[in-house]
Amino acid sequence: MALIGKPVPRKEGRAKVTGAARYVDDLRRDGMLYGTTVRSPVARGRIRGVHFGDGIPWEEIVVVTVKDVPGKNCITLILEDQPCLADGVVNHPEEPVLLLAHADRYLLEEARRSVTLEIDELPAVFDLEESLAATTVIWGEDNVFKSYLVEKGNVDDAWPQADVVLERTYSTGAQEQLYIEPQGVIAEANPHDGVTVWGSLQCPYYVHKALVPLFALPKDKVRVVQTETGGGFGGKEEYPSMIGAHAALLAWKSGRPVKMIYDRAEDMVATTKRHPSRTRIRSAATREGTLLALDFDFAIDGGAYATLSSVVLSRGTIHAGGPYDCPNVRVRSRAVATNAPPHGAFRGFGAPQSIFAMECHLDELAAELGITPEEIRRRNFIEKGDTLAVGQVVKEHVDLPALLDSAFAMTGYREKRERFAREAAAAPRVRKGIGFASFMHGAGFTGSGEEYLASIVGVDATADGQVRVRVASTEIGQGTNTILAQIAAEALGLPYDQVEVAQPDTANVPNSGPTVASRTTMVVGKLVEGAALALRAKLVEHRLLPDAAAGGYSPDDFRAACARYHERLGPLEAMTQYHPPPGIRWDDEKYQGDAYGAYAWAVYVAEVSVDTLTCETTVDDFVAVQEVGRVIHPVLAAGQIEGGVAQGIGWALYENVVWERGRMVNAQMTNYIIPTAADVPPIRVAFAEQPYAGGPGGAKGIGELPMDGPAPAIVNAIAHATGVRVRHVPVTPEAMMAALDEAAGAGAEEEAPLLAG
Amino acid sequence: MSEGGETSSMQTVRFTVNGREVEPRVHAMSRLLDVLREELGLTGTKEGCGEGECGACSVLIDGELVNSCLVPVAQVAGAQITTIEGVAHDGELHPVQRAFVEHGGAQCGICTPGMVMAAVALLAHTPRPSEEQIRTGLAGNLCRCTGYMKIFDAVAAAGSAGDEAKR
User: Which spans in A395-524 are helix H?
Assistant: First the structure.
């Protein structure tokens, strides 16, 4: 059939373009109530009392407090530190304290506004450095959720031998996922039937895992169903456990179905964002540009509760050193608490933060050495057989020089690098620059993560030969339904239309793990391929289909075989479970080993204009070249890259979360700006394909990769355009103005900034 | 609108949606978006922000592209409204819808109804738009998934498809 590599139509494409696709807010239940949340107005304090305002028919309103939680008051994830509802204390602004429900959502909103929380404020911490100093302790003994130390060689031996040692600090701001469909769920719950939650979510079994202890119910009394989901990007990885728990508590108490949909302001102010970060890098190199040592101090701000911070930190730690062969590397990293809503999963998951620092730093180090950004990378690019900082020997194909050549050819990089520098010498108002970043992104859970997950998938076939893939992996726009159907159809030698993907419903699908970490195509897809082959093997074993050696079979032969199987033997189904590929080893204690089964490799080039009067930066052109294994669906794959690049451009230039005492104060689309159709440059995407044996049809993970490259490529291009190095994103016009002013002030004393390539 | 029941401020507003006359009994200041979704069951029109920034709730009022979250229903009395449900005819997709499916213009799909309405409105005024005109025509509709490239491709293709059809 050769479906791999073909742009088949998206499974739910027709439903989405006609408005027929049903998202959670499009669903209703008879007798349904609306739910809402009363949240903390302060960052940290002790709750003294609750005052219910006058003029509200409180007897009609369902009120849930922490006392109504039937089981354990906690959102179970990794550490059990985050309450479902505040119990006497609050640790961040907008922390949920009370839940209300009523059939009239306008009355409900009036009721919510009339509740006053009386809170005695406690000292709070709002800044990453302040948290690291631990003068005020707000979490554990020292505010540290998690720390890692990764060491290769010994950096301290390298400093005396180096021709150049450079130390710089970089930082990145929070970023809102800003899926266009806000968080939302519908819940039904009672002691007899248990709890069912339908919702917009990435990970049905995460919500399931949180609801079981919260209600103290057996696992089979909790059911979580994913409805069509209007974007996630990580934002619907862990938070749906919270809103799902809240709606379920209201349903449990009222005995009625409860719908809870956040409006945009609540979604932005109360739910997770990308972790702000700070990375200090000290590097050592020879005069020619060979790296001798890289020493990282990487820190991320996790907000008030641990949630996923330890895992975000881990990915950022492992990716810090980039795709370079350096004999001595040390990464010390910490995730710390502040009194802000917990930061969480967002595409890239810690890697964009540390990669931003590294890729900016390499350009700075090159400038210090008087060589080009290209030269320093070519000298140090990792090759097959080299060892990454975590001690992983690269066994798969990698050819970064080829990706660089291809990206440079597509952009005319070298010619532009020289021409823009020449033009800048005349000091025009608008300066043009070109810059790039080279990087990698590991697919799947880190280290032994996939082994612990032990994901299971099922593939079944009805008596009339319709095949159904049963996974908990969700379609959130990235194309799960289409890709998994392609993989199963290819393995079975059937047309694409003969395979469907079941709605993720914990009552009906096995746990194929969360839809995160660029793992769905590579890891889950490989399991689907295996299950499809096992299903076919059953038919062959019972002599209902010819085996592969005997030649092919038609879709009708397959249908007939399924009919006979059902008749004689009953339901036809095959399951597979994840087992690590041979030769993979990981040491959780030392944090050493094969961190990821496979990496995608990439070189991204950005061309920018900086208006030195308005201080606005525009991205004029963007080229993304990557090696991602075999591309299963060229349109969906390019769509993933283009979408990720646009989010990366937003993070680099526009998306500025403004904080006031731990609270986002620009929680509106009006003043939190994401790229529009008028802002994005042409984004040109190219794939180099090297089949990876561990992925279905040779595919590797792809989803997060495009978030890593844009910010450093853009900031490096800005440095090329202006001669001014900014070390923080987003580079808003205000930030650019400050940087230009500072450089103009300093320029009087120092040499003119180096503009030439 | 709710179990709150009928109050004195409710009134009947008559208008046409997708060629069908409707007369919902609603609060005059109800948002058109809510009336479409909750009273008329037309849930294809989405709410992304409620403040006219994202365009997910785009509909055509007398042929003009409008954010239905910003329109009090009383204002559309007598008007002709087209929602996403009225774009395909007799199960036949509009060229814009077909192009969105073919070119990967829809990913998560939540912005898609609004984006399709914006594209339909653009092509009605400018049957063969330049890239610049496409960008401007869609600038009021936010998409967080696609980076817009595939949407531009789809709209450009739908524009040329319209040309082909006329030949």
Answer: 400-411, 413-424, 449-453, 480-492
Residue whose pair of structure tokens reads 């050769």 in the numeric block = A2
Rg (CA), chain A: 27
Q: What is the pLDDT of residues A353-382, one digit of tens each?
A: 999 999 999 999 999 999 999 999 999 999
CA distance A626 to A633: 15
- pLDDT tens per residue across span A578-610: 998 888 899 988 899 999 999 999 999 999 999
Q: Which amino acid is at A167?
A: E
User: A14 CB near a chain B CB, below 8 Å?
Assistant: yes
A117 sits in which H/E element: strand A115-121
From CA A182, how far away is CA B51, in angstroms rounded? Answer: 14
Tell me the C-alpha to C-alpha distance, in Å, between residue A304 and each of A83, A146, A606, A657. Answer: 11, 13, 36, 17
CA A471 to mean position of chain CA atoms? 20
pLDDT tens track for A529-571: 999 999 999 999 999 999 876 678 999 999 999 999 999 999 9
- Mean per-residue pLDDT of chain A: 96
pLDDT of residue A757: 39
**Which one of B1, B54, B88 has the shortest CB-CB distance to A669?**
B54
Neighbours of A89 (CB within 10 A): 15
Judge contact between A59 and A7, C-beta under 8 A.
no
Phi, psi for residue A673 in degrees, rounded to 5: -100, 125
- What are the CA-CA distances from residue A156 to residues A189, A327, A357, A739 (Å)? 59, 12, 21, 33
> Does residue A669 belong to the interface with chain B, where contact is any CB pair within 8 Å?
yes
Contact status, residue A137 vs residue A304, Cβ threshold 8 Å: no
Residue B166 banded pLDDT, cuts 50, 70, 90: very low
Chain B: closest CA distance from residue A17 (Å):
6
Query: What is the spatial distance between Cα B163 and Cα A539, in angstroms, rounded to a whole number?
Result: 51
Whose CA is closest to A527, among A516, A517, A512?
Answer: A512
A710 cis-preceded (ω within 30 degrees of 0): no
* pLDDT the model gives residue A756: 39
pLDDT for res A547: 82
Asked if A643 is an interface residue toward chain B (Cβ–Cβ < 8 A), one would say yes
Give Cα A502 distance to the centre of its chain: 24
Cα dihedral B4, B9, B12, B14 sign: negative
C-beta separation of A401 from A384 below 8 A: no
Handedness of CA A699, A703, A707, A708 (dihedral sign): negative
Among A276, A337, A265, A269, residue whose Cα is nearest residue A306: A337
With a CB-CB cutoff of 8 Å, which residues 602-621 of chain A face chain B?
Answer: none
A31 reaches B (C-beta below 8 A): no
How many other C-beta atoms are found inside a 10 Å radius of the C-beta of residue A643? 29
**Helix (H) / strand (E) containing A602:** strand A598-611
Q: At what angle do helices A710-722 and A351-369 cross, to 10 degrees?
A: 30
Tokens of A702: 């792809």
A428 contacts: CB under 8 Å, gap ≥ 6: none
The reported pTM is 0.97
- Show residues of chain A in contact with B93, CB under 8 Å: 14, 17-18
